[in-house]
């Protein structure tokens, strides 16, 4: 690399391979060589999306200040398309969703489940367009339904807030690309084949038996999955999509590890 500095003996001309001054694109030192001196601002090319070469990256735009990884390389649109491509590749390469499937997306209204819902909806939209464009129309388009697990019976959140959240989720679902998708509200106590009131009372008694917070969370997670599976079987859904983020999965792994070590220690003693 070229530098053209007084102490350089390489015979270079001060230009790097891309034609820019080398000493202008990196920090310099003072005359003693031991105190860093701030140079010019970060080159604009490092703030531009590496894919479209037009828009600012998510981190540079201030939306994700301090964001590393892909957020520092892509703009918002390219980040979304790149993430969707990874999602679609993972689903199709592992045959997670087939044309004959009827998919139930668990939707809580949070960012992770919302991304999963939009990506599944986008895949269905593309499959629908391909189906309409084909002459033989041999491959059907997989169905999509959305389910929200209502935990009012075991939650301290006021009922009116649950109702407001449900209305907001219905609005989100109604704005998805066609074909029309059904929105279902699945109550946690539906795991019991009883009247709703009896199911709520039985679930409350079961929750009250457990004293530690982590144990209650684990039980609610288990009951939530049972409710989704029971609803899916009864309504003809063949797959369930969960929008779990990596942070939540990591927490679950750590919790399971701690519980295993704790139980193992008790067994030894």
From TrEMBL:
Residues 1-43 are annotated as: Disordered. Transmembrane segments: none annotated. Coiled coil: none annotated. It comes from Cuscuta epithymum. GO terms for molecular function: sulfurtransferase activity; tRNA binding. GO terms for cellular component: cytosol. InterPro entries: CTU2, Rossmann-like_a/b/a_fold. This is Cytoplasmic tRNA 2-thiolation protein 2. Residues 18-27 have a biased composition (Basic and acidic residues). One of its GO terms (biological process) is tRNA wobble position uridine thiolation. Keywords: Cytoplasm, tRNA processing. It comes from the Eukaryota.
């Amino acid at each position: 690399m070229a530098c053209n500095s007084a102490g350089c003996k390489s015979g270079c001309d001060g230009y790097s391979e891309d034609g820019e001054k080398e000493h202008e694109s990196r920090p310099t030192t003072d005359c003693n060589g031991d105190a860093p001196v701030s140079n010019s601002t970060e080159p604009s090319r490092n703030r531009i999306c590496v894919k479209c070469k037009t828009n600012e990256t998510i981190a540079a735009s201030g939306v994700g200040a301090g964001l590393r990884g892909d957020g520092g390389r892509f703009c918002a649109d390219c980040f979304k398309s790149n993430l969707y491509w990874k999602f679609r590749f993972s689903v199709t390469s592992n045959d997670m969703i087939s044309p004959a499937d009827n998919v139930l997306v668990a939707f809580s209204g949070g960012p992770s489940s919302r991304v999963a819902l939009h990506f599944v909806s986008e895949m269905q939209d593309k499959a629908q367009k391909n189906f309409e464009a084909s002459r033989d129309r041999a491959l059907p388009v997989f169905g999509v339904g959305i389910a929200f697990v209502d935990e009012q019976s075991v939650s301290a959140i006021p009922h009116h807030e649950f109702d407001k959240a449900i209305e907001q989720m219905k609005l989100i679902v109604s704005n998805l690309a066609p074909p029309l998708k059904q929105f279902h509200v699945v109550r946690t106590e539906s795991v019991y084949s009883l009247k709703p009131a009896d199911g709520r009372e039985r679930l409350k008694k079961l929750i009250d038996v457990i004293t530690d917070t982590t144990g209650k969370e684990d039980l609610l997670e288990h009951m939530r999955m049972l409710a989704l599976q029971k609803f899916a079987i009864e309504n003809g859904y063949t797959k369930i999509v969960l929008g779990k983020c990596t942070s939540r999965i990591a927490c679950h792994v750590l919790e399971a590890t701690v519980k295993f070590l704790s139980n193992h220690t008790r067994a030894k003693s």
